[in-house]
Each structure stands twice: as structure tokens, then as C-alpha cells.
Amino acid sequence: MHIRNSVNVPRGVLESACEYDYEETVPELVEARERDIVVICRSGKRSVLAADVMQKMGYAKVRSLKTGLRGWSDYEQEMVDASGQVVDDDTAIDYFTPKLRPEQLSRK
Are 44 and 66 spatial neighbours (Cβ–Cβ below 8 Å)? Predict the structure, then answer.
């Protein structure tokens, strides 16, 4: 799921996506150093770190969405799937609901 018209750049390749001459280069992103950019992740935590990196790389107007996609979903804002179809609220809620495996639970 993603916000319509957003550009998906995984955190693991962000630095090379922001520069030319890399396999991961995203030209639209490289040329956006003076544009308003909102960095979004699932929870709003990794996007803060990504926005900080981008600021250090010369992006002047980059910010992080504090609520992440979870918050975006909580406010019933539109998200779409990979084919561009609107994702219904129930699917979004299910996706963002934490799913702990048994080994992740405390053993009290």
C-alpha cells in the first residue's frame, strides 16, 4: 500500500536513490532538492531518520510524516495498492494491525 502518486524508495537504498550514477537512482528524487518532500514509513520512526539523512544530503524542504502510514490510515486517507486500486479501510486496518508470532511474546 502507498499514497497515490508517491515515490517508493526503500530506506536501504535511500542514499544511492538520491544521487545519479547508481543502479537505485531515482531521477525525480535526485532533482527534487528544492521541492517540498514528505518522507513516510509505516510508523513514522524510520522516516525521521531518512529525513535527517536527506537534509544532510542537501534537501532543503524535507519533512517526516509523524504518524506514518498507520496514522494516514487511521484518518481514513486514501491509499492504493500496486495496481493503483483504492485499498478499502478493512484491508488497511488488517495490514497495520500488529501480528506477533509466538516466539515474540514474553514468557511470563
Answer: yes
> Residue 60: phi, psi to the nearest 5?
-80, -30
Separation of first and last alpha carbons in the chain: 36
Bridge partners, 86 (sequence order): 80
Task: Find how far residue 52's CA is from the centre of its chain.
Answer: 14
pLDDT digits over 1-38, tens only? 899 999 999 999 999 999 999 999 999 999 999 999 99
Query: Which one-letter amino acid corresponds to residue 46?
Result: R
| 91-107 b/e (C-beta count within 10 Å ≥ 16 → b) | ebeeebeeeeeeeeeee
For the chain, what are the domain ranges? 11-97
pTM of this structure: 0.83
CATH 3.40.250 fits 11-97, yes or no: yes
Contact 37, 65 (CB under 8 A): no
